[in-house]
Specification:
The structure is a single chain. It is built from eight helices and seven strands, in the order βαβαβαβαβαβαααβ. The chain is of the alpha/beta class. β1, α1 and β2 form a beta-alpha-beta unit. The longest helix is centred in the middle third of the chain and has 28 residues. The N and C termini lie far apart (about 35 Å).
Length: about 250
């Protein structure tokens, strides 16, 4: 397969979950892939297994971004795809959540998306354009108990994506910007949410029933949506929300 042949792609949070599944799919489709993650051991293991390059990174550290992008420019000469995927969740009521926890969720899920776009766009412009895919969530469209910080951060990503898409369109820089909105998917983050309630089996069944399709999603299913937005097949699509939620928000 060669849907991304000749393209260079950067994926944050690439050691596991959506990020790793997306990296694997991009590689199969001919892309040259760089993944980043705070977890150096997991990132190195993933890169070795997949056959891509790994860079240890805290996406909330602004100083890490110019170093990363300059390294990609030196090694690859271009950047065609940016997938802002790194994310965390704190599943706690607003009254029990600390300000430190709130700010950490916003920093990873929202601030880091801004930083990734800020520093990647100049190289993408020099490369002739490209595609930015911001991984949001259905939690950026609807609310849920114990998820206020996560919902706020993903809501910010949703509207930031639209605003940046309009900015790039006005600049005529050939950069498209779209967001992906998964439902509940079998990832470590969702497992944490299931465990947080104290009744994991009951919570799991509840989450499965939320989706009219009758189950939670798989990381590979989200990766296929990201692939579509990353490639030329979605060339007339910008500022859009690609919802992959088994029908949850259609109810």
């Amino acid at each position: 397969m060669s849907r991304l042949a000749g393209k260079v792609a950067l994926i944050t949070g690439g050691a596991s979950g959506f990020g790793r599944a997306t990296a694997e799919l991009f590689l199969r489709e001919g892309a040259r892939v760089i993944i980043t993650d705070r977890n150096a051991a997991a990132g190195q293991a993933a890169a070795a297994k997949l056959g891509c390059r790994f860079v240890e990174q805290d996406v909330t550290d602004e100083t890490s971004w110019p170093l990363l992008i300059d390294g990609i420019a030196a090694a690859e000469g271009r950047l065609d795809v940016l997938v802002n995927n790194a994310g965390i969740g704190v599943f706690r009521s607003v009254t029990e959540m600390s300000l430190k926890e709130w700010r950490r969720v916003q920093a990873v899920n929202s601030d880091a998306v801004f930083l990734g776009c800020k520093y990647a766009i100049p190289l993408m412009e020099r490369s002739g354009g490209g595609s930015i895919v911001n991984v949001a969530s259905i939690a950026g469209k609807v609310g849920a108990p114990l998820m206020a910080a996560y919902c706020a951060s993903k809501g910010a990503v949703t509207l930031f994506t639209k605003a940046l898409a309009m900015e790039c369109a006005a600049a005529r820089n050939n950069i498209r910007v779209n967001s992906v909105h998964p439902g509940y998917v079998e990832t470590a983050m969702v497992q944490g949410h299931i465990a947080a309630g104290g009744e994991p089996e009951r919570t799991r069944k509840h989450l499965e029933r939320l989706h009219p399709i009758g189950r939670m999603g798989q990381a590979e299913e989200i990766a296929r949506g990201i692939l579509y937005l990353a490639g030329d097949e979605s060339s007339f699509m910008t500022g859009a929300e690609l919802v992959l939620d088994g029908g949850l928000t259609a109810q």
